[in-house]
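Sorry, explain these tokens?

***
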Amino acid sequence: MPRRWGVVAAVVVALGAAGWAVRTWIRGHSTLPSAATLELAFDEPVPASVYFVRPEAGHVPTVAEQLEARLAALAAAYEGRRPDPRSIGLVQFDVEGLSGAIGLALAGVGDAAQVSIHIRDLRTGHVLFDDFGDTPLNPASNQKLLTSAAALELLGPDYTFATRVLRDDTALYLVGEGDPTLQVDDLRQLAMTVAPALDFTGIVRLVYDDSAFSERRLAPGYDPGGPGLAYEAESSALGVGYNYVEIIATPNRRERRIDVVTKPATPAIVIENRAKIGKKRSIALTTRERGGDTVVTATGTLPASGAPVSVRRRVHEPARVAASIFAGALAEITTSEPLPIERGVAPGTAEELASHESTALAEVLDLGLAYSNNFIAEQVLRTLAWRMTGEPGGWAAGEDILRGYWSALGNDPDNIVIENGSGLSRTGRLTTTGLVDLLAMAARGKGPGQSLIDALPVAGEPGTLRARLRLSGKRVRAKTGTLDDVSGLTGVITAEDGTAQIAFSILINARDVARLDAPVRRAIEDRIVTATLFALDDYEAKQSGVVAPTAASPLTGGRPRAPWRGAGRGAPARP
């Protein structure tokens, strides 16, 4: 299918027509250079803030115009970063053998799943294998790669999230800007900074301001019911502790009751304990919203001699929880009663008293991708929407920005469906070709420690790849993705020095989950990556003049390898 990137302008013009306001773009990037033309060398990163069209005299570019220019610049830069397909280097790569090995890995799949695979050499751009690479499939958490890549390019790897304390007349304001990593200790530190320098005699209330994000807090595709699963946490401009609460239920044998406590403990989290001592270990711990508070409900039974039960559940109206914790910390430090809290918006005349800055975006994404944290992904997407539009960050604007970024990389906009930033979705669709494009862009666009590739989990290290591909010598960096019937693995194989050499993406959407459950799907992915790693090492050995000890990969067990010609599947692509 032809791949287009010229749709970017149309996408952004549509966004502008939707009423995007003219506001400051992002903190620290509000001044744009008057020079309009910039040429990018092959390996130069795209500047974090450049206006690529010479503005008319006296014309101040709108936010929509700046975004359009930014995406257009990315599209131009991507074209400039494409490797020369005539590059010498893969004439001896055993693409036929790799195809045969992948065919063996997929031999038992048949019609039990839709499978898409794309494998590409990042140094030359040669496609080593492609099997339905342009077919959109559900990516699960591989969606986080698109969210992360767009944020790194449009916000910059050094972007930080601020949480600020301001004062205006008799009110204190706690203002959130989407920090996905803010913790209880950070709020206490803010309180310790503010308290000594403030005369509290004139302060009568604490106002929490979460207006940087839109009113909707639960991401599209998330279940509004159920027990309040922590991995479906609400998203808010002001939140704390990944917006979940830990609930611990402990049998009290002496008093014949179940004790229930929460971490954090705050007046905004109310406990309704109806659990009892009983013979069965059958306890339910859930959260729901009531009048702005998070209500923790405990029902069922635990044996008197049983072990405690601990679960994590989402909190409701997270900004209220954060403000309650901050008010409690202030009261403790000043030995006074907690200030009453209410929701509002800080006036422009308010004086800033203190601020907490998160770690750099690149580090936040490193954490989010390593543990596939849905909350971090949604926070980043909504921050991106806020900063790029000047309007409260919402999922609709975030979707349009991701679609524009996807198109800027040369991908067909019809091959993408975005429901949220994390991939916890039944309707989301991406292509493996497009996912590899994200990695190809990253491999040539950022300095050390600042690219999407640097944020990828490493095989054998803590995170979702801890127990996978451990014999790869940490040369595989990849993002996993798992739903009941979906598995995905997208990443790179590196040289010993960490330089990314080959990018791959594998998506498996199972039709028969009983036949292809998650462990089976993961095993298939690992075998494909292992085969690719073996083929790369075999190629490197030939390039250096070393004769490989055997032409067989771990998948063929020493048997001759034949090109795979699966029914209805594409042949291996050649240089």
User: Anything to note?
Assistant: Residues 1-55, 549-575 have pLDDT under 50 and may be disordered. The chain has twelve helices and 17 strands. Residues 518-543 form the longest helix (26 residues). The first strand starts at residue 113 and ends at 121.
